[in-house]
Amino acid sequence: MAYLSTDKVEHHFHDVVIIGSGGAGMRCALQLADAGHRVAIITKVLPTRSHTVAAQGGINASLGNIDSDHWHWHMYDTVKGSDYLGDQDAIEYMCRAAPLLVRELEHQGVPFSRLDNGRIYQRPFGGQSREFGEGGQAARTCAAADRTGHAILHSMYQQNLRAKTHFYQEFFALDLITDDEGCQGVMAWDIAKGEYHLFQAKAVILATGGAGRVFKVTTNAHICTGDGGALALDAGLPMEDMEFFQFHPTGIADVGPLITEAVRGEGGYLLNSEGERFMERYAPTARDLASRDVVSRAIAQELRDGRGCGLNKDHVLLKLDHLGKELIMSKLPNIHELALRFANVDCTRDPIPVQPTAHYTMGGIPTNRFGEVVYNKGRSKEGVFPGLYAIGEAACVSVHGANRLGGNSLLEIVVFGRACGNQVMKRLREHRYHPQLDTESWQSGVERVERWLSAATENRQGPGIADIRLRMQTIMQDHFSVYRTEDVMSEGVQHIEALAAEMEHAVISDANRLFNTELIEAMELENLMSLARVTAAGALARKESRGAHARDDYPERDDEHWMQHTLASIQKNKVKLAYKPVRTKPMTVESFPPRKRVY
Ligand code: SIN
């Protein structure tokens, strides 16, 4: 067994270590660094390549720049959108904070698009209404053309450089250092130099984004491998509601890249092979701007009924040429470029072939609305895991419940990034010193790397990483897609469990320590596999249809038995499921009780 002594590891001391340099991690870092704390961000990529950069359509806030709006209407839409699985205290907190934080982003340098009167441009997005669904469509999504995530990420990075946040880029987090007192730090691998680094911190924040790469066709970048969730599972913590995986209705057919909902917000619409605007049948009022789960299911149903387009009848068409070249090139320039590059379509003239595509991990590491990681402590109590926090797509706070509204993810990262920063400051007041760590505490991180490298050095034979990854993604795509059934899912669970067992014999062929990308892919696959296992088990167990979890065999929502969150952990290498109630009580207003969801 590999053993690394103190002199072989570079030891860093920070007040706070944040793993992940997307919008959530950077917003949180800014809050803490501006308050004078010693903050480190560990990221496996260059910070501005984090996946927030890919968020297109915008960020929701009830600014009311186009028409009257109110945070309470935003809250109503979000609770309804979540299919009543979202926690209403967290949703109220987020929707109330949104206007303030979007204006703050403006002051931090985000170049929002403008209305003629100089105010921030807002566009309609799916599932948005006014006056609790009675006042028609809202236009609540604040946008920087169709590159809003890009604009936010770059502004956050520059603000963090000003605030002197320490960036450890191209570092891969291997293992959380935990003891009876909670989380003490993280062991990491310097990808370029092939060296171990031990980070000790009074607070560790997981801001590692989603795990879209468990699926084969996804809008997610190759880096979206759920690393924080896997670290939490490894530390014995559960993941919450992982069965709720959002399929964005309009990924480019076959290849996956996102075609933003903003296209439909600006007036684009979907057509089937008969040239019919089929959304009128599924959502008579909101039509193409119904919530994402509704639109994705409608497309899947059209394909099942043989009204798909193309030779394989496997996609529908997104028409936007009628919007005119000027609007497309000013409000949707990125879409124009993506359609050209990935579908060879000039969308100012022809429709874009699209299909539902894995997009967003609505589940994640369970937290309260302060970003503290929580776990079930007995039947009805919740405990906080000291020193460990999670934010952004890596976390499940849960503001999205069973279905996220477009534009609420960029909002979540800034709202809870900031809230978590404020909560961490309270801990820092009470925890002033770093404890002495036992050398044993970092050996499992070392073991993780050395196991792969020794297989390569000894030229051991076994299944390769690319092969296992493709098989995992194919199982998830075929067995846990938009529509689900008992038979198909239970076969999927068996296949995933068998593949996870096979993974224990997997090998890599590159034994080099410097910039060994095969090694990184192997560890990313370990992370994905853990998340695929809990996703599959949670989905099979949930016997109802709710939001993104649509079962043919249980087509109705079952509030009596299933208005609860799934908690899935891996104990002694077996997936274990537990449940906890939804927090239906908001902070200050009345609860929105579950109602039938129509758009
Ligand atoms: C989109 O622009 O459609 C994606 C934005 C989001 O997922 O919130």
Secondary-structure blueprint:
Layout (H helix, E strand, L loop, with lengths): L9 E10 L3 H12 L4 E5 L15 E2 L10 H11 L6 H20 L14 E2 L17 E2 L5 H16 L2 E4 L1 E9 L2 E9 L4 E12 L20 H8 L4 E2 L4 E8 L9 H4 L3 E3 L7 H4 L9 H13 L11 E4 L5 H7 L1 H11 L8 E10 L3 E2 L5 E6 L3 E10 L4 E2 L11 H23 L12 H15 L7 H15 L3 E2 L1 H18 L13 H25 L8 E2 L7 H4 L1 E8 L2 E8 L18
Parallel strand pairs: 1-2, 1-9, 2-6, 9-17, 15-18, 19-20
Antiparallel strand pairs: 3-5, 4-5, 7-8, 8-9, 10-21, 11-14, 12-13, 13-14, 16-17, 21-22
Please explain how this structure is put together.
Strands 1, 2, 6, 7, 8, 9, 16 and 17 form an eight-stranded mixed sheet that branches. A four-stranded antiparallel sheet has the order 11-14-13-12. A three-stranded antiparallel sheet has the order 3-5-4. The radius of gyration is 23 Å and the shape is globular. Helix content is 34%, strand content 20%. The mean pLDDT is 96. It is built from 16 helices and 22 strands. By secondary structure, it is α/β, with parallel strands linked by helices. It binds succinic acid. The site of succinic acid has 11 residues, from loops.
Brief write-up:
The protein has about 600 residues and is an alpha/beta fold. It has 16 helices and 22 strands. It has helices at about 25-35, 70-80, 90-105, 150-165, 225-235, 260-265, 280, 290-305, 325-330, 335-345, 410-430, 445-455, 465-480, 485-505, 515-540, 560; strands spanning about 10-20, 40-45, 60, 120-125, 140, 165-170, 170-180, 180-190, 195-205, 240, 245-250, 270, 315-320, 350-360, 365, 370-375, 380-390, 395, 485, 550, 565-570, 575-580.
